[in-house]
Structure formats: structure tokens, C-alpha cells
Amino acid sequence: MHSDQDRAPLWLRLLAYGGIGFLFLPIAVIIIYAFNAESAGYSFPPKGFTLSWFGAAFARNDVMQAIGLSLQLAALATVLAVLLGTLAAAAMYRRDFFGKNAITMMLILPIALPGIITGIALLSAFRLADIPSGFWTIAIGHATFCVVVIYNNVIARFRRMSYSLVEASQDLGADMFQTFRYVVLPQIATALLAGGMLAFALSFDEIIVTTFTAGNEVTLPIWMLNQLTRPRDVPITNVVAMTVMLITALPILGAYYLTRGTEEIAGSGK
To answer: How large is the angle between the packed helices 61-92 and 185-204, nearest 10 degrees?
Structure first.
């Protein structure tokens, strides 16, 4: 049990609760007004409870097409990020060579830079290569910053894994692919899954990089941005916003629970 001396002072706890409330109050407003019976904006107090806006939102073709496109892009960007991030982590975690720090910096840079810088850089690169903006440019753009999440998760797990397991597998006659499948993969499985879930969430609700690389494609975040000029659709926009929050929050929570406590475990499959 914690003594009173271990607890933070009251003023610090109040500041912490105030900060949490400041962050989550807008989310609570969106959720409440997604069920508001009145169609006119954000009148207070809400005029009643209804589920009709959910049916109206998911009956619209533009909404479903935007959701479908965002799901496809997030899935493809996650697959690309898992492949590239895992290969990069495997190449970097044990060997020291000239330029290693520079390569690490380049891997982390896309997520560290402001999104507008990444978006402009990608747009310029695609134009130089004469690649028209569309589905694949969005997926590549999302994969550039999703790779960082996978790389960080996997290389951290590699560093906690005993390399003697790999050596033992090779001594017993396993080839490279057998060693990866039966020894390495079980060690990094949860790191890959957690990183993939985070990458999916990042890609699904990304808008800044998407704006520069989308062309005529309309992802769900772009659809929501366009809805800001249509006040009559506020209830439907609230429903879609709540859907985005759920789709992005669940993978993040799942990633947290998958990796919770694994920092104390070495040489296990977690």
C-alpha cells in the first residue's frame, strides 16, 4: 500500500485532472451530440436521444467509400511498414558500421518532422518521378512514417533477445529461414503485432500527408475536413468522427496491453 507521502500533492493532481479533462471534453461533446435528436448543430442542452443518425451516416455511399478507402490504405501501409521496419531492425540491431547513426536518424525523421514538411517532400518526389497522385502514393506516404513505429518496437525487442538462441538454432542445423520462423519470430511476435496495430491507427486517421498525396482520392479524414463547410451534416459528421475515434483507439489500447510488462521479460516470446 502507498503511504500519504507517496501521493502527489492535491494541486498537482488537480492540474493533472484538469489537463485530462481539457483533452477529453471535446471528444465527449462529439459523442454526446452524435446521439442528439436535433439536427441543428450544437444546441445546448441536447434535445433528446436518437440512433437515427447512425443509420443515416452508414447509408451514405460517400461515407462508406471513404471508410473503405481508409481501411484499405491503413492495411496496405501497415503491411509495407511491417516488412520494411522488421528488415531495417534486423539489419541494424547487432552490427556497428559507418553511417549507422545517420541511417537511424533517417528512419525516424518522417515521424519527427512536421507532417506538412513530409507531405511536401513526398509530393515533390512523386512529381519528379512522374507518379500521379492516388491510392499508391497515399499508401507509400503513410508507410514512410509507419515504418518508424515498427522499427522502434522490433529493434527494442531484438536488443532484449539473447543472440545465443539464434546461434543454438544454427548449431543444430537450422537454416536462416527456419531460424527466423521458429526462433526469432516467436520472440518478436507481440512487438510486431503491437507495432502493426499502432501503424494501422496512425495511417487510418492521417490527414496532413494524405492531403498532399491523395490527388482525387477521398479518405475518411479528408471527407471529414470537407464536411466542416456543411453545417447541415453536423450530426452525421459527429457519428463518423466517433467511428474514427473507435477505430483508432482500439488498436492503440490493444498495442498497450500486448506490450505491457514485456520490458521486464528477456528471452521470452512476449
So the answer is: 140
